[in-house]
Amino acid sequence: TNDISLTAAGATSDISVVVVNAGAAGDVTLVAGDDVIDSDNTDGNVLTADVLSVTATNATQDAANVIDLDTTVASVTATTGTAANTGSILIDETNQLTLTLFRIAN
Q1: 101, 9, 94: which is closest to 56 by C-alpha?
Q2: Phi-psi category of residue 58: left, alpha or beta, with phi > 0 → left and psi -120 to 50 → alpha
Q3: Do 5 and 29 contact (CB within 8 A), yes or no?
Q4: Who's near 96: CB < 8 A, 6+ residues apart?
Q5: CB of 45 within 8 A of CB of 22?
Q6: How far apart are CA 28 and CA 2, in angstroms?
Q7: Rounded distance between C-alpha atoms, residue 25 and residue 1, angstroms
Q8: What is the pLDDT of residue 40?
Q9: Given pLDDT bands bounded at 50, 70 and 90, which one contains residue 60?
Q10: How much is the pTM?
Q11: Which of 11, 16, 63, 106 is surrounded by the most beta carbons within 10 Å?
Q12: How far apart are the C-alpha atoms of 104 and 83, rounded to whole Å?
């Protein structure tokens, strides 16, 4: 398979996505102690996968969008924040996707 898993350890750790391409059948899992964001906030940087699972806890509360990604995926599971640290999820999809689970702590 073409599965990709990235974990940024530590409370202030971010994952800044330039290009992640697992193909149409591969899965991508991203986990960060702080934010998971598109590196340039344009549609040029795209994450490609069948299933995307992303978790960001927004430990430093330094961004309004804790998860901010441009994607070409079939389905997304996204979880952000803790009871003390919340934030928004922004997914800019190139076509259609299934929202498997979106959880924002409150």
Answers
A1: 9
A2: left
A3: yes
A4: none
A5: no
A6: 9
A7: 8
A8: 75
A9: confident
A10: 0.88
A11: 63
A12: 9
